[in-house]
Specification:
This protein has 211 residues and is an all-alpha fold. The protein has ten helices and no strands.
């Protein structure tokens, strides 16, 4: 087992899912619900997110091949997208990959926010899907690496599930400042991983060899 790949998979999964960031959005979207109703919504959100992530991990590569998109090109594009997301995280700006202001307003009016916005796009948005496809590409069909990817994102979604379940308690304990500090630290890590993905994609495209 490549320990560097394991570290990359888990670091990327936790930074892009960002379980701590789920605390304020969970409080905002379930503030009028009873504790029992909140638990039901959170459980549904985690299950939907896990299902979408699993589907993209299994079928995403086939979809890209059908569309004629090379994995090298997608790795570069994905790295750029993740870098833009990391910039938003570092500077504390809302990122469009997680949800637009209009979507957030619509979410507040939704009767069941489990699928939208908690599962999609907060837990599994474009950034998460891109990350999964990049890592599956890097795994190159190695069973151990593929299992690592599923374990990494399963752990990240499970951590987000715990953060959502205990959002009221964690929100009071950490405070707004604490949540922002953790998100900024994760943003810095994600920026480095994004640049590495771009470099990997350039290397796989053989552009440098053609020069």
């Amino acid at each position: 087992m490549d320990h560097r790949f394991v570290a990359t998979a888990f670091a990327t999964a936790f930074t892009i899912v960002d379980p701590i960031a789920m605390i304020p959005i969970t409080l905002a979207t379930t503030e009028d619900d009873t504790p029992a109703r909140r638990r039901t919504i959170i459980n549904q959100a985690a299950l939907v997110a896990a299902g979408v992530a699993t589907f993209m991990g299994v079928a995403g590569g086939t979809l890209l091949a059908y569309l004629g998109i090379s994995l090298a090109a997608f790795t570069i594009a994905g790295g750029v997208l993740l870098f833009l997301i990391s910039i938003d995280m570092i500077f504390g700006r809302p990122t469009g990959a997680k949800g637009t202001p209009r979507e957030e307003r619509e979410a507040m009016e939704a009767t069941n926010p489990a699928v939208f916005p908690l599962a999609i796009p907060m837990l599994v948005g474009p950034g998460t899907i891109t990350t999964i496809l990049i890592l599956v590409n890097l795994a190159r069909g190695h069973i151990g690496s593929l299992v690592t990817i599923f374990l990494a994102f399963g752990s990240a979604i499970a951590a987000a599930w715990v953060c959502m379940l205990f959002a009221p308690v964690l929100g009071r304990a950490m405070g707004t400042t604490g949540v922002h500090v953790v998100s900024r630290l994760l943003g810095i890590i994600l920026a480095g991983l994004a640049v590495q993905f771009v470099l990997n994609g350039i290397g796989e495209s053989h552009v440098l060899h053609a020069l």
